[in-house]
């Protein structure tokens, strides 16, 4: 709709509602097609935690009760932790039942949810910019869809919790902004949407404040007439918090420097470093050219008071607070947008509480919506005051969206698989100890899959180069030492391997996988008693995977301790993916080693039932 200047300048005009459904379809297709390449991607980075190596997901939809009654990573490592995010893991379990174990089905549903969330964002923008020409909410929605900062969320399945959290938040706000009385249907929609947000990720809890603020800015009925809706949201939040308190380990885990670079600082310098992150986030939001999957220590080289980024962060914070304060009285969209961004940014900002990451692009997924709304208001102010034609403003939005889309299109393939992702990440984050060690680990794993000894040696030597670079930055990263130890075992440098693995255990004694690695080295040095002790240590620390139990049982078989081997394989049977293999091994031991035909037939019958069940699935 054209907006004609009056004596008072260009005035906002009511949105044309007729083409809304048409634009919804177009924006859905835009979001889906732009990111369609992700449909062929593998499980990458931390996807195994919640999808490919999560025992509850592997069991399918029947494990939903366990998923909603355990901490997020219990299905992966069997251990309690501070996160309780069952909604997205429950989705993965259902998708596992429908699509099987391959990544394609998960990525398909992931992209559908993203496109749906983007359409819901568009409808929210329609209500917020209801007195503005329709090209403005369309343009802001298109910028949100195309923003390269969102590639991590779209390409990495682990970020499903970000997408469903967005859907829940936006769904709740859409109901709050609708006209008419608050009915039972409205209450059900608000309760389901807010539960979806909270049970997806705890960073959605600012919705408790965002809801009344949204009502204050945009709902003419005011807070009093919407009290029932706010009570429903509070009820959903209370249910989540009670269940999280019951299920998860609260307070959270003891993060290390490799998790969050701010741990190197003490207060108040830690706060100054957190303010520096505001400037870093603002930079990659405005100029998403160099993007990284990892910002671990010491990529950003935060330096507290002497860091110029800290003062840039103070400036950005001051501008945002100015818009918030100014908007409280005038109820301007700019004020609301700034408030929305701050509410959903602060929970992962390290300003109030320390989190498990220094900086992550996924953390800006929901806050970026508020920032884009803010930019939308600036665009319209420019349009009014400079009296730029509507066609030129639309052309500018199209150009920026096109540039964003090109960057997104070129960034997405980085997430195709781990070798590619870790290689690019180490290149873009050359001072991140985690990025360097991840690349070394993937090179070592690739070497172990190859039969050519020359290629294996080359990859191991390349891996050592990256580990040396990591050690030069920080010498107390356990994962660097354990990877060193594994490579030295491959190179038959057993004393050095044992020394490196022991260093890793000393740094992080709770990780049972380190004891497993030590056991493997002891097996090769024929120190069976030390190997068995290390296997037991790993078990006591909760290690629970197929290869661990298999190597442990093999050592018992080597020592002709057949009953102990059987008991070890029985432990493997609690892992759904390992049950078939464990039964086959137990059958062989009874048949070939113990000459117990009756027991061999019994376990063989159990094996047949498992195979038949797998075929039916």
Structural category is: mainly alpha
N- and C-termini, Cα separation: 54 Å
Could you give the order of strands across the largest sheet?
A: 1-2
Radius of gyration: 27 Å
Summed up, the helix count is 30
Unreliable parts = 1-11
Percent of sequence in beta strands: under 5%
Largest sheet: 2 strands, antiparallel
The proportion of residues forming helix, as a percent range, comes to: 55-70%
Basic shape? globular
What is the strand tally? 2
Summarize model confidence as the mean pLDDT.
Answer: 91
Taken together, the total number of domains comes to 3
Q: Can you describe this structure?
A:
With 617 residues, the protein is mostly helical. 47% of the residues are buried. Strands 1-2 form a two-stranded antiparallel ribbon. It is globular and about 90 Å long. The chain folds into three domains: 398 residues, no CATH class; 110 residues, Tetratricopeptide repeat domain (Serine Threonine Protein Phosphatase 5, Tetratricopeptide repeat); 73 residues, Serine Threonine Protein Phosphatase 5, Tetratricopeptide repeat. Helices cover 67% and strands 1% of the residues. The chain contains 30 helices and two strands.
Summarize the structure.
This protein has helices at residues 20-34, 47-50, 55-58, 64-67, 74-77, 86-99, 103-128, 135-146, 151-155, 160-177, 184-200, 207-218, 222-225, 227-247, 269-286, 308-330, 333-346, 367-385, 390-411, 418-428, 433-448, 453-473, 478-490, 494-507, 512-524, 528-540, 546-558, 562-572, 579-593, 597-616, and strands spanning 5-6, 9-10. With 617 residues, it is mainly α.
């Amino acid at each position: 709709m054209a907006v004609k200047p009056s004596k008072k300048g260009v005035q906002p005009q009511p949105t044309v509602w007729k083409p809304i459904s048409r634009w919804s379809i177009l924006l859905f297709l835009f979001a889906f097609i732009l990111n369609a390449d992700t449909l062929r991607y593998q499980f990458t980075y931390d996807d195994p935690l919640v999808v490919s190596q999560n025992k509850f997901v592997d069991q399918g939809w029947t494990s939903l009760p366990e998923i909603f009654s355990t901490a997020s990573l219990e299905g992966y490592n069997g251990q309690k932790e501070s996160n309780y995010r069952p909604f997205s893991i429950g989705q993965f379990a259902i998708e596992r039942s429908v699509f099987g174990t391959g990544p394609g089905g998960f990525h398909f549903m992931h992209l559908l949810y993203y496109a749906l969330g983007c359409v819901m964002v568009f409808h929210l923008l329609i209500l917020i910019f209801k007195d503005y020409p329709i090209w403005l909410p369309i343009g802001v929605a298109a910028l949100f869809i195309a923003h390269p900062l969102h590639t991590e969320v779209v390409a990495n399945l682990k970020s499903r919790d970000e997408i469903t959290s967005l859907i829940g938040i936006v769904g709740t706000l859409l109901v709050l902004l609708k006209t008419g009385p608050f009915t039972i249907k409205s209450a059900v929609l608000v309760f389901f949407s807010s539960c979806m947000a909270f049970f997806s990720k705890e960073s959605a809890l600012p919705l408790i404040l965002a809801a009344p603020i949204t009502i204050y800015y945009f709902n003419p009925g005011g807070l009093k007439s919407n009290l029932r809706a706010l009570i429903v949201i509070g009820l959903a939040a209370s249910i989540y918090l009670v269940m999280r308190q019951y299920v998860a380990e609260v307070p959270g885990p003891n993060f290390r420097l490799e998790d969050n670079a701010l741990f190197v600082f003490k207060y108040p310098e830690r706060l100054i470093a957190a303010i520096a992150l505001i400037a870093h986030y603002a930079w990659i939001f405005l100029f998403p050219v160099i993007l990284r999957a990892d910002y671990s220590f010491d990529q950003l080289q935060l330096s507290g008071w002497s860091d110029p980024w800290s003062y840039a962060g103070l400036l950005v914070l001051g501008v945002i607070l100015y818009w918030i304060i100014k908007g409280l009285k005038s109820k301007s969209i700019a004020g609301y947008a700034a408030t929305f961004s701050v509410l959903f940014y602060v929970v992962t900002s390290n300003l109030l509480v320390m989190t498990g990451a220094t900086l992550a692009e996924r953390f800006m997924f929901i806050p970026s919506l508020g920032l884009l709304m803010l930019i939308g208001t600036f665009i319209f102010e420019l349009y009014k005051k400079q009296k730029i034609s509507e066609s030129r403003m639309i052309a500018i939005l199209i150009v920026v969206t096109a540039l964003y889309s090109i960057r997104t299109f070129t960034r997405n393939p980085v997430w195709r698989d781990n070798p590619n992702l870790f290689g690019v990440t180490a290149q873009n984050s050359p001072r991140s100890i985690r990025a360097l060690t991840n690349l070394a680990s993937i090179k070592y794993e690739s070497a172990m899959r190859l039969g050519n000894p020359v290629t294996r040696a080359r990859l191991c030597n390349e891996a050592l180069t990256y580990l040396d670079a990591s050690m030069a930055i920080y010498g107390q990263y356990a994962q660097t030492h354990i990877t060193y130890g594994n490579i030295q075992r491959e190179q038959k440098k057993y004393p050095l391997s044992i020394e490196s693995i022991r260093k890793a255990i000393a740094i992080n004694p709770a990780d049972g996988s380190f004891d497993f690695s030590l056991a493997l080295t002891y097996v090769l040095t024929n120190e069976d008693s030390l190997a068995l002790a290390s296997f037991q240590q790993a078990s006591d620390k909760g290690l629970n995977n197929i290869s661990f139990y298999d190597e442990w049982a093999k050592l018992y078989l080597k020592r002709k301790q057949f009953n102990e081997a059987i008991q070890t394989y029985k432990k493997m049977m609690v892992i759904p993916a390992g049950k078939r293999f464990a039964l086959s091994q137990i059958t062989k031991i009874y048949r070939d080693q113990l000459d117990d035909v009756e027991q061999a037939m019994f376990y063989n019958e159990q094996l047949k039932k498992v195979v038949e069940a797998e075929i039916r699935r």
